[in-house]
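Pasting as-is:
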Amino acid sequence: MIDATLSSFGSDVINASLEVPVIVDFWAPWCGPCRQLGPLLERLERDYDGRFKLINVNSDVNPELVDAFNVKSIPYVVAFVDGGAVSQFIGAQPEGFVRAFLDRLAPNPSALEHRSARAALAKGQLGLAEDHLENAVALDPSNTAARLDMIAILLQHGDVERSRRHFGALSGGARRQSTYAGVLILLECAEAAKGLLPRL
């Protein structure tokens, strides 16, 4: 949990929400419902183990942010994803409500594994990326983006059979993924090349 100010809001909230959902809690020390909601949000941040980041904004000392978000009543909670505000609620809501709110925003474990795989790929760590992708697909077989990345890595290793099995398991929505066409071409080329190899 971090206390944000006007000067830090860009980095603490906007930029951070490009990596993980950020929950901004507008509160004040004199606000009774805030003292109920705040500890709940802090506990859920620990429970969710990195699936979202909690930021506190003290309304008394950040009037510019209060005005910017047209805050009329506190506690006021705003969720940020990919650099923008996407959802909000007012008041000290019960835990079930807050969990449902978070579950709509926080990436599932498969998505977290896929994110780790992409980070490993960016560093050229193919083995580590493959491990994360296997976890992502095992956690959610319908994670088409992770499965497409897995196919690309398997093709780099020359494992055409496993690539074809993963490709066959893709859902109908896979064609909408930006990497689909490129992976399909790689797979078809690998299969064609394998067919040209002389049989021993």
